[in-house]
Amino acid sequence: MSQLPPCPQCGSEYTYEDGEQMVCPECAHEWNKTETAAAEAASLIRDANGNELQDGDTVTVIKDLKVKGSSSVVKVGTKVKNIRLVDGDHDIDCKIDGIGAMKLKSEFVKKV
Question: Is residue 106 within 8 Å of residue 53, measured between CB atoms?
């Protein structure tokens, strides 16, 4: 038997299937099964090569990146250790030696 996902609205673990719909008996929220799968796939953050990234990973910059508000540049091949994944357009929060705290887009890094 497969494990059913919790309710996305209230977090209840008592969800059940009703045809193509998922139903929460506690808050009466109904949602489509395909919405759940699409939301899980969208929440994954992947690097430029398609590898899944996780908190604490080490990545390498694959393109020269200008630092906004400064004349410095993050060079190709710069290693960034212990990344943190966040929601938003710039989905990696990190510290780069010599520059400081930055936010990066996952499309400009690759997992080491």
Answer: yes
Phi-psi region of 80 (alpha: psi -120 to 50; beta: other; left: phi over 0): beta
Q: Please indicate, yes or no, if residue 51 is contained in any of the structural domains.
A: no
CATH number, domain of 103, equals: 2.30.30.40
Tokens of 107: 């499309």
Mean of all residue pLDDT scores within the chain: 89
What residue numbers bound the domain in which 103 lies? 58-111
35-55 pLDDT, tens digit each: 766 666 667 899 999 999 999
pTM of model > 0.90: no
∠ CA 20-26-27, rounded to 5°: 75
